[in-house]
Amino acid sequence: MEKTGVLDRIEGDKAVIELDDGNIIWVYACNLPKDAREGSVLSIDDDRIILLEEETKKRREEIQKLMDDLFID
User: Fold this and answer.
1) CA–CA separation, 66 vs 17, rounded Å?
2) Rounded to two decimals, what is the model's pTM?
3) Per residue in 29-61, is it b (16+ CB within 10 Å) or e — as a string?
4) Nearest of 44, 31, 34, 38 to residue 5 by alpha carbon
5) Coil, strand or helix: which one is 3?
6) Is 44:5 a contact under the CB 8 Å cutoff?
7) 35-71, pLDDT tens digit by residue?
8) pLDDT tens sequence across 1-45
């Protein structure tokens, strides 16, 4: 079953991923895509973890817009 989540952090050899349903999972960091970093959107399907580059970019842009609106000069 495919799930989507965001890489929250890496602690030692483990990575913490917050799933879109609010659950948290831990995976071995060595199983992450090489370009994954905190905030990356990931697709998790059994033993495969795929970086969703376009979704990551979209979410980062949305967050940046919210921050820009919040901190108006």
Assistant:
1) 23
2) 0.86
3) eeebbeebeeebbbebeeeebebbeeebeeeee
4) 44
5) strand
6) yes
7) 999 999 999 998 799 999 999 999 999 999 999 988 8
8) 899 999 999 999 999 999 999 999 999 999 999 999 999 999 999
Count of residues in the chain: 73
C-beta neighbour count of 71 within 10 angstroms: 7
Q: Are 30 and 15 in contact (CB under 8 A)?
A: no
Spatial strand order of the sheet with 41-45 comes to: 24-28, 14-19, 2-11, 41-45, 48-51
DSSP state of 46: T
Residue type for 60, please? R
Q: Please name the residue ranges forming H helices in the chain.
A: 53-70
